[in-house]
């Protein structure tokens, strides 16, 4: 991994030198745009609307345009902003973990200690763990002041940037709570359905099926050319059954189906346990 930022966490007079690393990566298959007639790549160019020349990225400045006024900001101008030069992740306050709404979470980063001794890093990490609190911090990254949550994952400090409150939209529709009547039986069946699907969260059990199928399609077209039998490639699509209009009936059938699926999954495990016990 390559560090994308170097600075220090500061709270009070305590200084914790750190490096910032992106904690996530994208494994999606990259698809390019091509002309359907001759498969030529579609490319986009940075072209000046005045001189009609293609402009290299090194010759491009930024500008604020307000009606008829254009204010150009050079790289030197932007680098002169004090926040851009600031290399501190400043702790603003420590808040209970439960108070952070997940809708605010944006990007995740790992923080690695870089000082002569990791003592201050370990002290901050253990304090967060034992207090059940998250540090709210502010820092500058890529020409933006960031609000972020500093928390612990395993033995590593993780920084999760947060959206600003005005970046979260309010729902544009009214609540249906007062106009819909839910019976006690429907709630009971719904709770039973939730229980039948309940399990501990293990991220490794889940996979990106779309990307897997996309890779299968690419491989099938590589082998077969333009004409691909999708049923052969992906298998025939299962019939989900007829539409169930009655909510109660849908809940009942869903609970039965989920319990039956769990029973089938548990059967092989019980057989294995029986064999081990009898040996």
Oligomer: single chain
In DSSP terms, counting alpha (H) and pi (I) runs of 4 or more, how many helices? 7
Can you give the helix content as a percent range?
25-40%
The total of beta strands comes to: 9
- Spell out the helices and strands N to C: EEEEHHEEHEEEHHHH
Shape: extended
Strand content: 15-25%
CATH architecture descriptor of the domain at 5-26 and 81-166: Beta Barrel
Radius of gyration: 28 Å
Characterization of the model:
With 279 residues, this protein is of the alpha+beta class. The chain has a domain of 108 residues: Beta Barrel (Ku70, Chain: A, Domain 2). It is 32% helix and 24% strand. It is built from 7 helices and 9 strands; from the N terminus they run E-E-E-E-H-H-E-E-H-E-E-E-H-H-H-H. It has a 7-stranded mixed barrel with strand order 1-2-6-9-8-7-5. Strands 3-4 form a two-stranded antiparallel sheet. A hairpin with a 2-residue loop joins strand 8 and strand 9. Helix 4 runs parallel beside helix 7. The longest helix has 32 residues. It is extended and about 65 Å long. 8% of the residues are buried. The model has no long low-confidence stretch (mean pLDDT 84).
């Amino acid at each position: 991994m390559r560090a994308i930022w170097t600075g220090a966490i500061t709270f009070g007079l305590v200084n914790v030198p750190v490096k910032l690393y992106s904690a996530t990566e994208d494994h999606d298959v990259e698809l390019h745009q091509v002309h359907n007639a001759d498969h030529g790549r579609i490319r986009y160019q940075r072209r000046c609307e005045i001189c009609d020349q293609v402009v290299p990225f090194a010759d491009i400045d930024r500008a604020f345009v307000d009606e008829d006024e254009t204010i150009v900001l050079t790289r030197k101008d932007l680098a002169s902003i004090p926040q851009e030069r600031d290399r501190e992740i400043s702790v603003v306050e420590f808040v209970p973990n439960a108070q952070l709404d997940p809708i605010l979470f944006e990007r995740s980063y790992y923080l690695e200690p870089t000082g002569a001794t990791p003592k201050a890093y370990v002290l901050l990490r253990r304090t967060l763990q034992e207090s059940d609190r998250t540090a709210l911090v502010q820092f500058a990254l890529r020409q933006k002041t960031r609000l972020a949550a500093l928390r612990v994952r395993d033995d590593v400090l993780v920084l999760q940037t947060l959206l600003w409150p005005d970046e979260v939209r309010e729902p544009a529709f009214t609540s249906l709570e007062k106009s819909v009547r839910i019976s006690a039986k429907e709630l009971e069946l719904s709770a039973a359905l939730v229980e039948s699907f309940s399990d501990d969260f293990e991220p490794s059990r889940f996979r990106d099926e779309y990307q897997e199928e996309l890779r299968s399609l690419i491989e099938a077209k590589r082998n077969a050319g333009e004409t691909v039998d999708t049923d052969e490639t992906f298998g025939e699509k299962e019939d989900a059954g007829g539409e169930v209009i009655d909510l109660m009936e849908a809940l009942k059938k869903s609970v039965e189906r989920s319990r039956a699926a769990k029973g089938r999954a548990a059967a092989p495990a019980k057989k294995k346990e029986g064999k081990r016990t009898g040996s």
